[in-house]
Design brief:
This protein is an alpha/beta fold. It has eleven helices and 13 strands. Strands 6, 7, 8, 9, 10, 11, 12 and 13 form an eight-stranded mixed sheet that branches.
Length: 359
């Protein structure tokens, strides 16, 4: 038996209440108080927070024991055992609706009452453990779901949850952005590791906000390199505009940050538009990634770009030239691709005729 189990008794007959109290004390329970009405029983339960309430169904006031029990169990989470002389089917069915933890008929014997109380306390304990475990499982589910959304785009998470798999998908036209910092190796070599991580985390955290604002997908970071995609996994027609606008804001953010920061980061940005295949790779640590020649060309645009500038291919230029002023930057011979012409983004062009196409 549980040590010092505390019980409240609801009984409209004083003599019976005294008899019940003596029986409970003989069994080793502590009686906190007795009441003759439903409202008083609820007040006692709220005041003393007993381990259990013994409840007669018929009480003195208009509130029945069943109504009082429902409030006590639902609002106060206290188990109730009915102790009543009423044994007709209608009463018993009404009482069962409130899902009591026990039901003892009068006249009762000590053994039956004892067994009913101990069983009620045991059932209550098991129920609480199940509720706690269910809560833990729900919290684990929320954490797992949040982790999935941190790793994969929303559409990919939805596919994984609905089908259990993630199929590779080909996209005919997307826009990729690669960035890295000029002189990163030299600057970082003089920094404490923790200081370096703090710097990159602060910069990339702000990049993440910009990417989210423009509804783009951050694919990965590799050291000081940051890779972004527009137009996947949800296909759009304005992916090039969004990626360039995001790149402009990233450069603007760094210029403002450099005014007050100890370390001055100058970023190269390279952009190309084309087809890719996207999917999930890995066995234990999954990564959503893209493959194809578009990746190689976008990366080359970053490598051949200028610090503080945004270098784009002629393919991307053709998509955005009505919305941005650009300057020709020359060409490079890229293995397997021949001559690639490049342009530097100069500024956004806000013209009335373009207001529906320029983002």
């Amino acid at each position: 038996m549980q040590d010092e189990v505390r019980i409240v008794i609801a009984e409209d007959e004083s003599i019976i209440a005294i008899d019940i109290s003596k029986t409970l004390e003989h069994l080793g329970y502590k009686v906190l108080g007795t009441s003759r009405t439903g409202l008083d029983t609820i007040k006692l339960a709220r005041t003393f927070k007993p381990d259990l309430v013994l409840m007669d169904i018929v009480l003195e006031d208009k509130m029945s024991g069943i109504e009082a029990a429902e409030i006590i169990m639902n609002e106060l989470n206290i188990p109730v055992v009915y102790l009543t002389a009423m044994a007709d089917d209608e009463t018993i069915q009404s009482a069962k609706i409130t899902e009591p933890f026990g039901y003892v008929l009068k006249p009762f014997d000590e053994r039956t009452l004892h067994s009913a109380i101990e069983m009620a306390l045991y059932k209550y304990k098991i129920n609480q453990q199940l509720k706690e475990r269910t809560k833990e499982l729900e919290e684990e589910k929320v954490r797992a779901n949040r982790l999935l959304h941190n790793i994969f785009p929303n559409e990919v998470v939805r596919e994984l949850q609905e089908t259990g798999t993630i199929k590779p998908k080909e996209f005919s036209m997307v826009t990729l952005l690669f960035t890295d910092f000029q002189g990163f190796t030299e600057i970082s070599s003089d920094m404490h590791p923790q200081e370096l991580v703090t710097e990159l985390n602060d910069v990339f955290k702000n990049f993440d906000s910009i990417i989210a604002k423009h509804q783009l997908e951050k694919l990965k970071t590799m050291g000081d390199s940051y890779m972004v995609a527009g137009g996947l996994p949800k296909e759009t027609n304005d992916h090039a505009f969004k990626v360039i606008n995001a790149a402009i804001e990233m450069q603007e953010y760094l210029k403002i940050r450099n005014c007050e920061s100890k370390y001055k980061w100058e970023m190269r940005a390279g952009i190309h538009s084309g087809s890719v295949v996207a999917g999930v790779v890995g066995k234990n640590k999954f990564t959503y990634d893209v493959w194809g020649n578009t990746v190689n060309i976008a990366s080359a645009m970053e490598r051949h770009g200028l610090p503080g500038r945004i270098n784009i291919t002629s393919t991307t230029y053709d998509l955005i030239k009505e919305c941005f002023d650009c300057s020709y930057f020359g060409s490079i011979d890229l293995t397997g691709n021949g001559k690639i012409e490049m342009y530097l983004i100069e500024k956004r062009r806000y013209e009335e005729k373009n207001k529906n196409t320029c983002r």
